[in-house]
């Protein structure tokens, strides 16, 4: 029984988990003015505090920069447009939640948003929930996911946002490699189980 417990504990090291991995991200919006500029992606990264002054409060992980952020308990990426429009991207152990919130009673004009996130642990991206249908497309190529939301129309934003829209994605992380200590523990458990079974079998033969 003890050996089986050891095996179970060792197997936990194989559990896939994004917590503690490193992610880099960006948020660009699409210009919606007259052609031919229509549809042009604005060149600065809204998730980079150095490219858009005072738009990333210190409560977000990207406050120090948009790259190599450790996924953990805090919201990894955030952008606040004078606190009226707030866009966040929050990772958990196996999911990503993108939230757009307008705190103005008259609504916020939402531009076409382009999100990208890179983490070697990313695999198999799936959209789980999008009640407002503001996600236009998404993909995962290699270790980089690309998500487009709120595609604009000519001269106008795609819509006016009131309140909060939320989309949730499932991410199947790459299974972690067991630490050497875990491998030793697993091997010990297996050997102990085999030894117990062999001893039991030998005892039966002696009694017979």
Automatic annotation (TrEMBL):
The keyword Signal applies. Residues 1-16 form the signal peptide. Keywords: Signal. Coiled coil: none annotated. Residues 176-198 form the Ice-binding protein C-terminal domain. The keyword Signal applies. It comes from the Bacteria. It holds the Pfam family PEP-CTERM. This is Putative secreted protein with PEP-CTERM sorting signal. It comes from Edaphobacter aggregans. The lineage of its organism: Bacteria, Pseudomonadati, Acidobacteriota, Terriglobia, Terriglobales.
């Amino acid at each position: 029984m003890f050996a089986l417990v050891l095996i179970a504990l060792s197997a936990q090291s194989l559990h896939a988990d994004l917590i503690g991995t490193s992610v880099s991200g960006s948020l660009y919006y699409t210009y919606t003015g007259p052609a031919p500029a229509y549809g042009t992606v604005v060149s600065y990264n809204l998730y980079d505090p150095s490219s858009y002054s005072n738009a990333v409060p210190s409560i977000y992980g990207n406050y120090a920069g948009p790259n190599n952020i450790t996924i953990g308990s805090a919201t990894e990426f955030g952008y606040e447009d004078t606190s009226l429009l707030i866009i966040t991207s929050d990772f958990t152990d196996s999911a990503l939640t993108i939230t757009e919130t307008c705190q103005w009673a008259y609504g916020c004009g939402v531009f076409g948003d382009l999100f990208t996130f890179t983490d070697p642990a990313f695999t198999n991206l799936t959209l789980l929930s999008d009640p407002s249908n503001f996600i236009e497309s998404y993909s995962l190529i290699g270790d980089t996911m690309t998500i487009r939301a709120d595609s604009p129309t000519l001269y106008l934003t795609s819509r006016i946002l009131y309140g909060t829209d939320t989309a949730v994605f499932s991410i199947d992380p790459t299974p972690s490699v067991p630490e050497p200590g875990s491998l030793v523990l697993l091997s010990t458990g297996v050997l102990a189980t085999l030894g117990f079974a062999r001893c039991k079998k030998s005892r039966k033969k002696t009694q017979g």
